[in-house]
Amino acid sequence: MSSSSSAAAVNSPPVAKKVKHIMELFGDVRVDNYYWLRDDSRSDQDVITYLRQENSYTDFVMSGTKQLEQQLFAEMRGRIKEDDISAPLRKGPFYYYTRTLEGKEYVQYCRRPIPNAEAPTSVHDIMPTGPDAPPEHVILDENVMAQPHDYYSIGAFKVSPNQKLVAYAEDTKGDEIYTVYVIDAETQAAVGKPLTGITSFISWAGNESLVYITMDETLRPDKVWLHKLGTDQSDDSCLYHEKDDMFSLDLQASESEKFLFVASESKTTRFVFYIDVSTPEDGLKVLTPRVVGIDTSVSHRGSHFFIIRRSDEFFNSELLACPVDNTSATTMLIPHRESIKIQDMQLFADHLVVYERENGLSKITAFHLPAVDEPLKGLKGGQTVDLIDPIYDVEPIESLFSSSILRFSYSSLRTPSSVYDHDMNSGISVLKKIETVLGGFDSSNYTTERKWATASDGTKIPISIVYKKNLVKLDGSDPLLLYGYGSYEICLDPGFNASRLSLIDRGFIFAIAHIRGGGEMGRQWYENGKLLKKKSTFTDFIACAEYLIEQKYCSKEKLCIEGRSAGGLLIGSVLNMRPDLFKAAVAGVPFVDVVTTMLDPTIPLTTSEWEEWGDPRKEEFYFYMKSYSPVDNVKAQKYPNILVTAGLNDPRVLYSEPAKFVAKLRDTKTDDNILLFKCELGAGHFSKSGRFEKLQEDAFTYAFVMKALNMIPALVSGEE
To answer: Boundaries of each Peptidase S9 prolyl oligopeptidase catalytic domain copy (predicted)?
Structure first.
């Protein structure tokens, strides 16, 4: 640290200079004294110096917890089986999987030949290993690739249909702008030149072509391209340009591998084109037309496309099919239901699998389809897959289309991440892989439950809770960490996180508030927590906190809260509204300068976000958004202990938003509680890229929470 005097130890809270910046709209004047903290080039010395001072002050305040932080990190790392492989997936004549190695941050992408690839697949298949098995081949080792970089992430890894080539997308900054490389799967030799400035949306169209998506200067995915291997990127043909800046493109392949689907979506509308992979040069054809308020997602099997369609009227979606050669002739397979949301589907040679959500939980149903040459008139007698915990998280993962085996991932707050193969003919599920949790973990020592808080308007809000049976008293004296998100219809399902055990095994209760704005209870749960109803997200969270106190899970003195990104907006808002309710708060990469950001269409994501938060260029939205925007509502009042984090290269939430929030809090608040700002100078929105580096951040966060609760163990004499 001695190289720069400005970054020397800072043992009092940094004071950001004030430069008056006046903004006026609808006769309303806002003064932002910290507007200068936004520097898009990320090179202004005053800004960097201030960020370094904040980091230095954070180091100073947390210096006494270093030992605890290291202990937490050692525990978290100690639970991980460092040398491990993922559940192998059959594709063509190979098993594909990833491998992690002792002491290494990143994964290897591997494959092995299947000894008898012609034999039918079974849920009991096991990839042979050992000296007599076909040898493992490492296609790509991220550990080697990451060496020259501070940050390294592979956003896509796609094997060509003939299994001979691999295309992968690499980000070495954290800004989510990728370079795509094509290599020979056996020799790793480069095939052609890399493609630069790409998103992670890439797909093979046959063995000789790639389809990919690029972004505009606001990082909005807006163009689809066709690249023929061996030709120059400058010769690639643009298949579609989405000019409407409310819409973004995405790309996926059908499970049958016969079609690629390009979708253009806003927050309320989604329409889809298809590309026949056997003739990609024919370009895009319309599958579902662009109709405002209609959202479609699609797949394919045999002579039919399958379509999940949502509208204002059919808000929880319906499922239809249409012939490939007559897309307007649709057949209803599952009609809309008010209490069950169709979330996703997966297609197989003989089956259709539907992921649905009812009463806050996902369920999986498998239907047998008629033979490909028979008419598809409807669905009969689906089989629901049995799951073990009362509350859980279940997600689709890639399966083998030609088989009758559905693969899904499953976990709960007490069940480590598991991969199951489910035979859709016999109904048998076989556990293929469960995350090993070292250190004597036993799931039966933990209790997981679902409770319901009552919101101010009478709505019941689900809360998921986990704790260790023999450690908690449930008399109001237990420490509790309440986590929330509540935006974009994202479902914060109760899944497993081994790092969390470092809190739970110290007597913490961990809870998730499934507040409106998320999608846990169906589409309307989201609709009732966005735009001019956004504040229900915050009041729901406060209602959950009050319920947990009332039911003696904790007290105000023991209640800590955490959220990231849009969940950081949640934390900022509830801190301004009810600072008396919490002891400590963690706001990760928080979206806290809502009005100023949403008034600036040059910032990534802004235009498409108007359908989520509202467009403050309209008066009604301006005043409503201003009434909850955290930066605009910091008051002279007592706040709890607060940790705010940011990433300098974050393209989703500008680092200057959390920086302003902290500067304004420092200037305004009337308490002496801890306020820390930690800005990662080398990472983006998703923090550091290595698996152990990420744990370092968890360890720091938990150490902060324990410090705020006065739970730091006394140091042994003789140590500092």
So the answer is: 496-710
